[in-house]
């Protein structure tokens, strides 16, 4: 059995739901195990729609609590650096 990459997604805006989330959810070698977004409404909708059980309003909590192999940063451009750099 091939190990699936455990992926987290930070940000749940238009781009995340249009490109990376649908692609990752359908890819057999990846599993979206966590998602983080500051909006509880967007977060709940995405978690339900894509079947993601671990969801966080604080991406730092997601990074601390989830054993991830990779992360997609799907935030607005002006905060990409801050998120990618870490806390």
Give your account of this protein's structure.
- The chain is of the alpha/beta class and 87 residues long.
- It has a domain at 1-31 and 41-67.
- Helices cover 41% and strands 23% of the residues.
- The protein contains 5 helices and 4 strands; from the N terminus they run βααβαβαβα.
- Strands 3-2-1-4 form a 4-stranded parallel sheet, with helices on both faces.
Question: Could you list some keywords that capture this structure?
Answer:
alpha/beta; globular; 4-stranded parallel sheet; single chain; 4 strands; 41% helix; 87 residues
The residue-averaged pLDDT reads 92
As residue ranges, the low-confidence spans are: none
Task: Please give the order of strands in the largest beta sheet.
Answer: 3-2-1-4
Query: What fraction strand?
Result: 15-25%
Largest sheet report: 4 strands, parallel
Q: Structural class, from secondary structure content?
A: alpha/beta
Q: What's the total number of strands?
A: 4
Structure at a glance:
By secondary structure, this protein is of the alpha/beta class. It has five helices and four strands.
Blueprint (SSEs and pairs):
Elements: E1 5-10, H1 14-18, H2 20-26, E2 30-36, H3 40-50, E3 54-56, H4 59-65, E4 70-73, H5 80-85
Parallel strand pairs: 1-2, 1-4, 2-3
